[in-house]
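Message: A physicist's question: would you kindly supply an amino acid chain plus fold tokens?
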Amino acid sequence: MKTKLSLAVAAALVAAASSANAGIMIPAGDWTVDIGGNVNAYYTHTSFSGNQESNVKGAFSSESANTVQTGLLPSAFGIGGKTRQNDLDVAFQITYFVGGDSGSGQAFGNNSINIRQAFLSFGDKSWGTIKAGRDLGIFGSDAILSDMTLLGVGSGAGAGGTTTLGRIGSGYQYADWVGQISYASPNWNGFSFAAGIDEGLNNAVDSTNNNLGFQAKASYEWAGDFGGKVWVGGISNKHEGTALVSSYTTRGWEVGGKVDVAGFGLVGYYYDGRGLSGANFPATPNLNLNGGINFLGFEKTDDNGGYVQATYTIPGVGTKIGASWGESTSEAKNGNLEFTNEAWIVGAYHPLTKHLNLVAEYTNNKIEQELAVGPDAKLKAKTVSLGAILFF
């Protein structure tokens, strides 16, 4: 059950037509078509506090918000295909993502369809795979795929929209969905690597970035009664200057690992870099814009963070219970301004069937930012979420 669930989660987030994570398989001539995805919805209750509370609540008139919305995984519908031609494994994947709420509470709310995946791939197990198109980035991908809140909500609830944030911005940077040409090596007795160029992401003031980015990762994975994985990764992306800021190059590195033994799972992750900041300097922080999105800032900040996570799957019942803590920090170069985003999360994830999971979570999210003028900004959000996620 645990293996099937892990495959389903990975397929919903980074479905690859060439993988064995099949949903509904349909033979079609030389092709095998794979249809899969997920649907999820959660009731969330979020209470806000802090001296910048009004900036977090937005249109909410009270100190709390109640929503019915999707979690960290948007609901998704994916269509992929794979075939073997001229000694090559050829595949494609197109996936549509959508939220589960109406946004404004009306039928014409601000929810929208988002096509985050549209790529082709070709290769062979003897020499590797080349991917071209839009898909999840390489840097930070293992961090989000190891996050237990993939099945739930985490932070960022209360505002509706297509997705919440899980632990994005409070322990890791978002891998994001980027146009890329990348190469993934074969698996050599557990060791593999991936590297690629990607469409350069813009920072807050450079809307015409024409520089390509670079991402890479190496990992070693092993199976058995004491299974696990370790990985290291890096990222680089140059940003052109403007009249307001100088040119700079974002650089970052990451290291992580996870182990599973006798129903227990442990994850540890750390990243460090410059110019990675998702902190919205110099504006007042907002829980709906709480960092974790690469290059959302507009200067060469000093950035670091990480998270630790422990889970246990109850034998026979199959319920996974877990707790995690994480923090991300960004420090501006034009002064001693510092942005810190910390979150504690506990959750229970119960497989009602092999495809349907019931979820209960509690998240305590705290954001603090030193300001050059006036008192430091302090924002808190405590969220209880209850819901279900169905994979197909």
